Amino acid sequence: MIRMIAPLSDQALQELNTVLPWYAGTLLADGRLLGRLDARPHKREDVQPIPDKRIKRLDSALGLCGKTVLEIGCFEGIHTLGLRHFGADVTAVDLRPINVLKTLARLSAHGESARVFILDVEDANVDLGHFDVVFHCGVLYHLEDPVSHLRAILPACDAIYLDTHVAEPGRDQDTLVVGGQSYQGYRHHEGGWQDPFSGRAASAFWLTMEDLQALIKSHGFECQTWSERAERNGARVGLFARRPA
């Protein structure tokens, strides 16, 4: 990976901040702000830490230096930078072309680089190759069929960190049938393509915690719950799974 030698000029930084529609801000090494902090109520209103605590814990568990990492849903490159902080060999993908552009711009401004591509992770025909680790944060709960997606992703890695909303007990229940097997959860309304914090479709399916963990374990992983928290939109969990040694 190439590191930028010269710092970004004030003029170049101003152009990046003006031209691209940022929804989150990070501080460059000299304290200047890239991005913005006032995009939307309750959404990334503070400077984002690099790396954040989830990536720090992932590095403690696995040692990310030199590991090949597939990042699902890079958004604006903040987690991409966090993974690069620990020396991971990162391939980052996102459905939205503008997110790929913003990720590349943020990486460059911070003096980093990674392979960043436009990719529809719900496309069953995509050949992902194989990675040591999948970093999967804030994407699963935007997908119409998270089961088929995980069935494609899990064989492509030896470990995965998955941060997602899950269906809570007591809410309206629905069933997703994939390959003749039923999964419990409910359908969550999405804001549509024009909402940068929503998925592509009108609705997404949120799996129950029980079914999500069972699906991960069925692919030969040992699964740990790293976090459980209540957010505006519902229950959210952080799961770490790896294949036994």
Q: Which features does this protein show?
A:
single chain; 245 residues; alpha/beta; Rossmann fold; seven-stranded mixed beta sheet; three-stranded antiparallel beta sheet; 24% helix; 31% strand
Task: Please characterize this protein's 3D structure.
The protein has 245 residues and is an alpha/beta fold. The protein has a single domain (49-242), classed as Rossmann fold (3-Layer(aba) Sandwich). Helices cover 24% and strands 31% of the residues. It contains 6 helices and 12 strands. The strands form 3 sheets. The chain has a 7-stranded mixed beta sheet, sandwiched between helices. A hairpin with a 2-residue loop joins strand 8 and strand 9 (181-189). The model has no long low-confidence stretch (mean pLDDT 93).
Class inferred from helices and paired strands: alpha/beta
Average pLDDT for all residues? 93
Strand order of the largest sheet: 5-4-3-6-7-12-11
What fraction strand? 25-35%
Reported for the largest beta sheet, the result is:
7 strands, mixed
**What's the CATH H-level superfamily name?**
Vaccinia Virus protein VP39
Shape: globular
CATH structural fold name: Rossmann fold
Helical residues, percent:
10-25%
